[in-house]
Design a protein that fits this description.
Largest sheet: 8 strands, mixed
Number of helices: 11
Oligomer: single chain
């Protein structure tokens, strides 16, 4: 997988969207084509996809107008229609209508000694999709500087700001998915990165908008010299918060931990979510390692660990997942560090650091 980098010049959302769209039209078009194919393979009709994208557009324009302006700029700069830009931004909401996908394992240790949170995540996605991605660096209208890894067409995903806060991102599936229109979960990730500096502020933002699909934002922050972290589980039905106490480690994969939301779990396909969760829980002491690269290497060295997801040849193309990225967040200095590789392959991959500042 290729991870590009893009740094905004600091203009308004519309202008920066135009610049981004004009710089990456081939990647945006390729992403659109591949997701349209996935929608078709997954049994999502074009009329359903259009309906979902329109609902996400209306919610974004209402709750995140600056992001909506950026989307208009991306359409103008790339030559895609605005409808297609929203299809890309709301791909999770479209897929939630028919075929849930499994991705990502996240662990965060909260030191009790005043140090910053120590985090690590895998990004697992379809083998055939998103083999070109991007780390975007920009200044938000709030003044925060942000660095975020995302697929082309997403306004944010896994990222960090220069105000001491980072966001990890895992997909979840709930029976309420698709029962209402709402803000795309990747727009919500952007809103949290732009406007939050504490876990409480991130929770407040998550609770302030309607959603059409489920995810979990594992938010790590350094507040007044003390580390804090919480898994914010969101769905169209409700929002739940699982907080980590100082000295403890928080783990999340792709099933709900909140008992009330777990009662509405929806996973029609075979999933490794529980084995990956148990693997991280069993290896939780490794999350204490201060150096981000060494932490990733330690998790990668776990023998036959299910957190390294390999594509299965016996599955159809739209059901083959693999670990494409291993990433850690440095909320103290406002940076993300990553390798475009599964944990088991990090030792042979290039480790990259990108600062939000």
């Amino acid at each position: 997988m290729i991870v590009h980098e893009w740094t905004a010049l600091g203009g308004d959302g519309l202008d920066e969207g135009r610049r981004f769209g004009a710089a990456w039209p081939l990647q945006l078009t390729a992403a659109l084509d591949s997701y349209l194919e996935l929608f078709q393979e997954s049994g999502v009709s074009s009329s359903v996809a259009t309906e979902v994208a329109q609902g996400c557009r209306e919610a974004t324009e209402q709750h995140a107008p600056a992001v909506a302006a950026e989307f208009r700029g991306v359409a103008e700069g790339s030559g895609l229609s605005l409808q297609d830009v929203y299809l890309l931004a709301s791909r999770t909401e479209v897929l939630a209508r028919m075929t849930p996908s499994m991705e990502c394992s996240t662990i965060v240790h909260v030191p009790a000694d005043g140090g910053g949170p120590r985090t690590l995540q895998t990004w697992d996605w379809h083998e055939t999709l998103s083999n070109e991605t991007v780390v975007r660096r920009f200044r938000a209208t709030s003044g925060a500087r942000i660095a975020t890894f995302c697929e082309f067409g997403q306004p944010a995903k896994i990222g960090v700001n220069n105000r001491g806060l980072g966001v990890h991102f895992n997909i979840l599936h709930h029976r309420s998915d698709g029962t209402r229109t709402g803000v795309p979960v990747h727009v919500l990730a952007r809103m949290i990165l732009e406007d939050a500096s504490t876990v409480a502020e991130a929770v407040s933002i998550a609770e302030s908008v309607p959603l059409a699909a489920s995810s979990v934002f594992t938010v790590a922050a350094l507040r007044d010299g003390a580390a804090e972290a919480a898994a914010i589980e969101v769905s169209p039905a409700a929002v739940a918060v699982i907080a980590a106490q100082p000295g403890h480690t928080l783990v999340h994969t792709n099933h709900f931990l909140d008992p009330a939301l777990a009662a509405g779990e929806f996973s029609p396909y075979e999933t490794t979510s529980v084995p990956r969760y148990e693997c991280l829980v069993d290896a939780a002491d490794l999350a204490r390692i201060p150096d981000h690269h060494e932490r990733a290497l330690a998790f990668g060295a776990i023998r036959d660990a299910p957190i390294t997801v390999r594509p299965r040849a016996d599955q159809p193309a739209h059901l083959r997942w693999e670990s494409k990225l291993t990433v850690a967040l440095d909320v103290v200095d406002g940076a993300l560090e990553y390798a475009a590789a599964a944990p088991a392959d990090v030792a042979d991959a290039t480790w990259v650091r990108v600062s939000a500042a």
